[in-house]
Known about the structure:
Blueprint: E1 2-4, H1 8-12, E2 15-23, H2 27-42, E3 48-54, H3 61-68, E4 74-78, H4 85-95, E5 98-103, H5 114-122, E6 128-132, H6 140-158, E7 170-173, H7 190-196, E8 201-205, H8 222-239, H9 243-272, H10 281-312
Helix pairs in contact: 2-3, 6-8, 9-10
Amino acid sequence: MTLLCTSSAMETDVVAVSVLIPVYNEVDNIAPLCGRLLPALEGTGRSFEVIFVNDGSTDGTEEELRRVAADRRIRVINFRRNVGQTAAMMAGIDHARGDIIVPMDGDLQNDPLDIALLVGKLDEGYDVVSGWRRDRQDGFATRTLPSKLANKLISSISGVHLNDYGCTLKAYRREMLQGYRLYGEMHRFVPIYAHWQGARLTEMPVRHHPRRYGKSKYGLERVLKVVLDLVVVKFLTQYETKPIYIFGFSGAMFMGLAFFAGLYALYLKVVDGVSFISTPLPLLVTLGIITGVMCILMGLLAELLVRIYFESQGKSHYTVKGTINFDEPPVGSPSRTDKTA
């Protein structure tokens, strides 16, 4: 990737707000967006930067970004190829300098004036403020209805109830985006990760405008991706440090199925005189036992991998918000030297 309009001074300076905008083939939207975004950010009275992440565009977006980046408050990351919105979001987070990080879309459907409202909500003590496109300006059958169904599914499974997971416009305190990486299509699940880390989360309505230029990069095919990613998120948020629970539960279910199938086979043999080989029950018993044992063994292997992952990288499965009356680093900290007699 190539960084534009950066310098050693800019890399080290801290700003109040970093706005992250992943774009892919949005050449016609760049200039109008900057024309609205910069005045809106100036109106907040906070220092800011705008980070465009060009996700391998092929329509002249890179050249347009190079032009608008004459303003040093605009920074640009160019990917060599298209790798998806989640990777673009992660790159923006990695390079952001702001204490508050605000992702938004680059298609002019999000309103820059809402950024001040989201950031202001953070000042009330929240860690994450999620935008809600209550009056969404998209096709109902192809975009709005699938989104509503997906939001209900995600909320019910994750336990984090939001009306609009798909709205990119959100505001995060920087610390809520640290400690994990995003893969696949998981950018929409960041509020779940943040909630998992103890974030105070709220939602507020934001404006939504019809798309004027270009075309949407999403279709109904992303529904399956969302469901599969949701399974991964559910596993990571609840079983990352105890995978034996889910594997062991699955193994117990298969063994229970084998047990009841065996009992039923014995019942048929003793009461009705039905031969074992005349039913598929013995095969079901065998497969149930084998599958159950394999699930438990996989759970034990996963437990070993989890411990290797955390201990080899010096990671912890807990996060400390702050301490009181601690004058020295905790045990295990690289800066602590144990004294020996």
